[in-house]
Amino acid sequence: MGRPKQKHTEKNETCSVRVVHLERVAKARDEAISRREAERLALTYKALGDPTRLRMLMALAGGEMCVCDLAAFLGLTESAISHHLRRLKDLALVKSRREGQVLYYSLDDEHVSELLNIGIEHVRE
Question: Nearest CA to 71 among 63, 79, 103?
Fold first, then answer.
């Protein structure tokens, strides 16, 4: 069951009277995240905003895969896959483990899986 879509215009997105609700502003300040956290979160969402990286993460949600597996799945070069994985690893979205000469990648933790699941649930509404 989806949410009803409202048509937004500039007119109905602004207040017709200028008033500042000080208690709401104070509450927002008290609950605000730090600038550093906001920047890191924005980088995370930016990384998730790339369809290739998102498909990689969704594939890894099903279990660990190596660069060759991901390249075959996405139809990309191993070099391109490695580039994306480096970015995802820098943001703690994926982790790796070595088994002999093979490096396997998986989601970093349950939070990444939850982010993906919530996003999928939202777009399927």
Answer: 79
